[in-house]
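Deliverable D4.2, example record:
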Amino acid sequence: MGRFGLLGLAMMTAEDFGEALRMAMQFAAITGALMELEIDTQALDHGDRGVAMVARMGTPEPDLEPFLCEELFASSLMLCRGLLGAQFTPALVELSYPAPAYADEYRCLFGCEVRFDAPANRVVVDGRWLGMPMPAANPATAQQLL
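Output generated by the structure prediction step:
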């Protein structure tokens, strides 16, 4: 988690994963992410509640978009697995660009359905993860780090 700096440490000490995710989105700009991020609350196909991390390019660059999405979503996945354990898997990944020749690698990495040519770039997280307590929860420490 050290490679994610103070923000990663603050996320580790958050009360639950939902709070850690809110921290990540609030301070995404300091991580060096080259895409604009927002959280979208929406219903999942099976009726549970979840959230989606939506990523957009400030200035559309179709040649760069796959690389930027791969870097952002893969590093975010590693952060989530660092917080919740290797069993963490998104519910769905949607990407607005065509499937590359190595599209199966996406499915192997994320462990979920991956849709290409989607309306937006987003990773959907099942609502059951949001209430998962952080093992190092310490609200006072999290607040100080923020």
